[in-house]
Amino acid sequence: MAVLQAKGVGKRFETRWVLRALDLELEAGERVALLGPSGCGKTTFLNLLGGLDRPDEGSILLDGEPLHQASPARLADLRRSRLGTVFQFFHLIPTLTAEENLELPLRMLKWPEARIRARCSELIDAVGLAHRAGAWPSELSGGEMQRVAVARALAARPAVLLADEPTGNLDRASGQAVLSLLADLTEQQGSALVLVTHSESAARICHRVLHMEDGRILNGAA
Ligand SMILES: Nc1ncnc2c1ncn2[C@@H]1O[C@H](COP(=O)(O)OP(=O)(O)O)[C@@H](O)[C@H]1O
Ligand SMILES: [Mg+2]
User: Fold this and answer.
1) CATH number of domain containing 38
2) Residue 157 lies in a domain
3) In a domain, 222, yes or no
4) Mean pLDDT of the chain
C-alpha cells in the first residue's frame, strides 16, 4: 500500500485555483522529486501533503488515513510521529543548541531520556556534526544548519520526509552534502521522500521525477 496518497487534490486561494486535480502515490521508502518553476504550486502542494493546510477538493491519505479530515489534535500527532519536514531556511530554534534542536521532537513525543540520548548521538554522528553538538545555530554555517534540520526531521523515523527546496539557500558543495544525506538516511531507515526543487541535478537523488506547471503535474498520475 502507498504510504502517502493524493487523489484529485485541488486548492484555491479566494477564487483562484492554484492546484488542480493532483494525484500522487508514494510507496514506502520511495524518493520522488517535484520539479517546477517558481509559483507553480510546489510549496502549496507540500503543505497539503504534510497536513499544514487542507485541500479544497480531493483527499490526502497517510497510511490510508484521511489527513484532510483529521482533527487538529490527530494531525499534530501524525505530524510528530509519521512526517518530517525540512525547509529552505532551516527553521532551527535559535535559543537551542544543535543537539537540543535535534532532541526537541523526541521530547515532544515523550521518548525516554536514554533513548533520546542514543538516537541523537547516532544522528549527529550520521550528519557529521558530533563536534558541533553544543553550537548555537548562529554559530553554524548554512550547510551545517541544514544538516541539523535534516537530522531533526528524521529523528522519529518518519514514514515520509517532506523537503521544500532544502538546498535553495546553500552553496553547491553544502547543497550536495545535504542531498547525499537526504538520500542515504532516508534509504537506511526506509523513509519515503518528497523533494521539492527547481534543480534537475538535485532531482537525481530520487527514483522518480514529477514535473509541475501551473498547479498541475505534467507527466500524469504517478
Ligand atoms: N497564502 C496564499 N494566499 C494567496 N495566494 C497564495 C498563497 N500561497 C501561495 N499563493 C499563490 O499560489 C501560487 C503557488 O505558490 P507556491 O505554492 O508558493 O509556489 P512554488 O512553491 O512552486 O514557488 C502562487 O501564485 C502564489 O502566489
Ligand atoms: Mg515554494
Assistant:
1) 3.40.50.300
2) yes
3) no
4) 95
pLDDT in tens, 149-174: 999 999 999 999 999 999 999 999 99
Nearest CA owner, ligand 1 atom 14 = 41
Ligand 1 pocket residues where CB is under 6 Å: 13, 18, 36, 38-44
Please provide the distance, in angstroms rounded to a whole number, between the alpha carbons at the two ends of the chain: 14
Contact (CB, 8 A) for 194 and 34: yes
Concatenated DSSP letters of 61-127? EETTEEGGG--HHHHHHHHHHTEEEE-TT----TTS-HHHHHHHHHHHTT--HHHHHHHHHHHHHHT
**Domain residues for 61?**
4-217
Ligand 1 atom at minimum distance from 196 CA: 21
For residue 1, pLDDT over 90 is answered with: no
Is the C-alpha dihedral spanning 117, 122, 123, 124 positive or negative?
positive
pLDDT exceeds 60 at position 11: yes
Q: How far is the CA of 42 from the centre of ligand 1 (A)?
A: 8
The residues near 207 (Cβ < 8 Å, ≥ 6 apart) are 30, 31, 32
* Amino acid at residue number 156: A
Given a contact cutoff of 8 angstroms between Cβ atoms, the answer to whether 197 and 165 are in contact is yes
d(CA 96, CA 100): 5
Q: Into how many domains does the chain fold?
A: 1
Residue 41 lies in a domain: yes
Model-level pTM? 0.95
31: which strand partners? 193
